Input
Amino acid sequence: MTAHAQTPTEAPILVQVRNHIGHLTLNRPAGLNALTLDMVRSLQQQLDAWANDPLVHAVILRGEGPKGFCAGGDIRSLYDSYKAGDSLHRDFFIEEYALDQCIHHYCKPILALMDGFTLGGGMGLAQGAELRVVTERSRLAMPEVGIGYFPDVGGSYFLSRVPGELGIYLGVSGVQVQAADALYCGLANWYLDSSKLAQLDERLDTLSFSEHPLKDLQGVLSKLGTQVLEDAPLARLRPAIDHFFALPDVSSIVEQLRAVTVADSHEWALKTADLLETRSPLAMAVTLEMLRRGRHLSLEDCFKMELHLDQQWFEHGDLIEGVRALIIDKDKQPHWNPPTLADLSRQRVDQFFEGL
Output
């Protein structure tokens, strides 16, 4: 316990109700609003309270500061917990996934403002929202394979439902996309210029609600934003991505990216092959299997599968080494186990899914 009460600006979640709208602001701008267990619990508590409050018609979820909505979970604290033999790294995922699932099924419309970086756990919060808004500053990704992990927080559900093989590509490579691609992939459904965010707030503060709060919010967004942007880079790459990322395993994907030219995407293909060779072979292979399974599973079963993987991953996955190399020691030289795709056995991948 701290000796003094937290002032509102210090609280990790800022809570306000204005004009029948509950505003939740992630308030750790220095850490790009990365989620801690306390933040997860505060969000859950507030959503539970508002679900039963007839005076709250809708919820807005945003991040403090212009740089990011939420850059994921506070992975450093989970690393420390595992190293110390504590249970935080287990409790965190159970409660975070429950919160994400609650957002998917929430009884009132939620508008998520994915302004700036929206990565990992930030995507978990936003993807269950009915209204998902991006701006020109938005950078969306499930970058987990870069630290030897897999796209969780419902990623096995929402990435596996992106058209064609685009979701497989995003999950296995961990690349970031911007606004046009986010709309094209269905990972966002509105675009708003960041210069209009203040105007959005003004209109929400004076909105007269009808019996249909979702339609009311859509009406406000339709006056300020758009649902389609031209020239999504992934639309051009789609034939190549659909070809390569439908191959049976990650080794074949990398091999073919180097050997085969689809349309005029060869430069992209070589860059992608280089990128995949820096990622954890185990994490990529498990991600590929998980996303392909996720296509046929309900939201609940996707979360169960992710939790099943989590419970083994700290011991048997590459996350601890990834965090060491990229976040703790910052030597950027992770020693993946196994080090290459050629050394990875199918059995090693399948073991994670046993007992599902």
